[in-house]
């Protein structure tokens, strides 16, 4: 592995290690120190240290809140006739009182106002966009009851609540545009109950999916949704994410049985019971999955599990051009060949993997499809034979693993794709990761057109995708301090999303909307549909306290 690849991995790992170390030490700062640090209503604090947005600007911290006009009590529940232009939150004095009460309920070691902690919870190197403000405090609950107490206090004083799980989201899904209290579920990372006979498990939101599968190894069961390795179950529920297994196993919504949710006012609800099948009332579970914490704070999740396949084989197939790769993928989907994973990497991305040196072999720098086949040995052999037969007219070379070691090697290029792109960057570089989804019939056109535009704009980007379900990504390496290059990258992303929408596709297949794609959501669904979502939020969260500024704005 190259030194640059190791550096970037170490840097990312250090960020998560810092979180865990920080949590485990006691926050000794007294409440009167917080009081003395809080400015008046019209003031903002500016750190003298470098801004997370770049050295050219200071970070504006909402040490108070977005105070707009009169107190919220004058409005009660908002209606069309009395809805203000912006959400109305508590004053600085309200914040001080709330912080005191949260500390009294939870203890000093479960609240932080440390500057580095605030920056870490309000800014992300991975995100396409970041808020100008940071949270003003971080709460670390240990239980559903703790979360409920936090929500009751924040509701009482009208303070925004920003849920935080793994911190790996890509569209500022956990940012704090209105300041407020960020609720970090770091300490809620346990398996609560395992029901082997029923093939389900109850977990807390901060357990990583890979860690969960390690705990399940002895059961011959696994949880198949596989996004990035740092993703945690709570955030996965929030964005309705997926991964390489989506072609066969589906997305997060297909694997959630029920949720325990803390509402904006602190009430605790369970969305349904545990059987696989029910027609009892509204599908509240489906309502909260994908809502990005804007409707409630998820504290427990019951997940379906699947048997580990008896046999798994990996294959790699190269093509002379990306159009042929996309056509071959479409032919396989149309024929219904059983495939667990079908992933695409273009010639640029294959070159990036070679240059980064993070794998044990050199790859052909051609558009490449990566396959996983699973089932009984007979089923897998039959699927491989059908695959060869179907894509032979389009393919350049075939390679199939004979054992687990070869399978690991062949899949390593796909596993290293993002890390390899990051490793090529230098100081000031970022990788903008965006995704869109289109109907299968539009795959070839959108990939070919997007590739051409990337070249025309002079942008360095790899195309990679879960091509089996019409979802693909652009990994765009750019210098965030170069205004001209940044503009070209933004134009590239904008055009890619607009192109997907013109094809009756979606602006995001698995990353969520967050702050970064709110305008695209309006284009995708229209004002009336988004307004239905807004009214659902107002019914559950009339004071706009839960993860405000995400998915859609307060008013159209």
From TrEMBL:
Q: Keywords of this protein's UniProt record, alphabetized? A: FAD, Flavoprotein, Mitochondrion, Oxidoreductase, Transit peptide
Q: What is the lineage of its organism?
A: Eukaryota, Fungi, Dikarya, Ascomycota, Pezizomycotina
User: Domain FAD-binding PCMH-type: where?
Assistant: 131-308
Give the SUPFAM superfamilies listed for this entry: FAD-binding/transporter-associated domain-like, FAD-linked oxidases, C-terminal domain
Q: What Enzyme Commission number(s) appear in the record?
A: 1.1.2.4
Classification via InterPro entries: FAD-bd_oxidored_4_C, FAD-bd_PCMH, FAD-bd_PCMH-like_sf, FAD-bd_PCMH_sub2, FAD-linked_Oxase-like_C, Oxid_FAD_bind_N, Vanillyl_alc_oxidase_C-sub2
Q: Where is the protein localized?
A: Mitochondrion
Protein family according to the UniProt entry: Belongs to the FAD-binding oxidoreductase/transferase type 4 family.
Q: What is the catalytic activity of this protein?
A: (R)-lactate + 2 Fe(III)-[cytochrome c] = 2 Fe(II)-[cytochrome c] + pyruvate + 2 H(+)
> Which biological process terms from the Gene Ontology are attached to this UniProt entry?
lactate catabolic process
As cofactor, the record names: FAD
Its recorded name reads D-lactate dehydrogenase (cytochrome)
Q: Which domain of life is it from?
A: Eukaryota
Per the UniProt record, the source organism is: Trichoderma harzianum CBS 226.95
Under Gene Ontology molecular function, one entry of this record is: D-lactate dehydrogenase (cytochrome) activity
